[in-house]
Structures are given as C-alpha cells and as structure tokens.
Amino acid sequence: MPLDAQLTFSTRSGALVAYRDEATLAIELPAQVPSRVETNHDFAQCMGGRPPKEVWFNDDYLLVYDSPTEVKSLAPNFELLHKIDGRGVITTALSVDDEETDFVSRFFAPKVGVNEDPVTGSAHSKLVPFWTQRLQKVWVRGWQCSARGGRIIGCHHESSVILKGGAVTFSQATLELPVLMNEEQD
Q1: 3-class DSSP state for residue 117?
Q2: Single pTM value for the model
Q3: How far apart are CA 167 and CA 79, in angstroms?
Q4: In the chain, where are the structural domains located?
Q5: Pairing of strands 103-109, 150-157
Q6: In the chain, at which end, N or C, are there fewer CB atoms within 10 A of the end residue's CB?
Q7: Concatenated DSSP letters for 122-176?
Q8: CATH classification (class only), 32-160
Q9: Which letter does DSSP use for residue 110 in this model?
Q10: Taking the C-alpha atoms of 112, 94, 74 and 45 in order, what is their torsion angle to the nearest 10 degrees?
Q11: pLDDT in tens, 132-175
Q12: Closest CA to 13 of 1, 29, 2
C-alpha cells in the first residue's frame, strides 16, 4: 500500500479506514469497552484448568490472568468454548518482563469457526480500551502470543481505537467489478 493511500471498508460496524503509517499499517475501529461481569461459565474448565482472576464482557469474554506464562500455556477445550454465549474468548495478562510489551493476549472463537486467531483486530478493539485505562497510558503495546503471533500498538481515543502493526500477506486476488451503466447510457 503506498504511503499516502487509504482503504475504506464498509462493514456492519460502519466504515473502517486503513492506511499506511510509516513502517506500519494502521486501522481505526470502533472501541468496544468491556464491563466486568459475574458469570456461570466454568472458564477454568474451558481453559484447561486455569481459572481467570477477572472476567469482563463486550460481545467476547475477556479473561484476565496473573501472568503472560499463564496465557501462553492455556490449553482451551474448544468444544466447551463453542457453547458459551459470547462470540469468543480473549485471554490477557500484564506483561512484566518485556520492556517492549504492555500486555499479552490470545483469542479463541470456535463458535465462528476460528479455534485460535493469530492476530485479531476486533479483540484489540476491547483490549486497547481495557489496558489504556488500567495502565493510564495513551498508547499500549500488545503481543498476541498465538503460534504465529503478532505485535499491535493501540490508542483509545473517544469512541474508537487506532491499531498499528505489521501485516502478513496470506492471499492475493484480483477483483473484477462489473461496469454499472446509468439509465441514460442504455
């Protein structure tokens, strides 16, 4: 993508604008601020025996753990996760030993056909408001520690989040759009 180019995607969430920002790609998404909840879900069983210390919700469950090691070592039961009432489950912890990372995360959504997503913009639309508020920072740095993994820098501003990071090309295609004729050209 050229440095001055921008792409606008029409989605159910509204228009999403992506652009190149020096060495990274950036996208602005609607912020989805989670709320702390009590739940009857047995997340310890869902996550391989590890209970979260906090549970938050906004379309996805956000499970807070004590350490990055806990998040990395989770062994989710995808059959049980498929049965929860949210779209998916985000797991996260404060990063204490890595000066370049404020938090780690993983995202599981077997209900929508994704056991574990490598790097998830929609999860970060919840994680960035959560961690910027908790850490009292304008910008936070996250590492989604899936098998492929990825780093995202995010800012929560009013009703949106700005996410910046690298990208991996996983597919290329050419779209051929039909030429639309107006009635005068018939």
Answers
A1: strand
A2: 0.86
A3: 30
A4: 32-160
A5: unpaired
A6: C
A7: HHHHHHHHHHHHHHT-SEEEEEE-SSS-EEEEEEEETTEEEEEE-----------
A8: alpha beta
A9: G
A10: -80
A11: 999 999 999 999 999 888 999 999 998 999 999 987 777 888 87
A12: 29
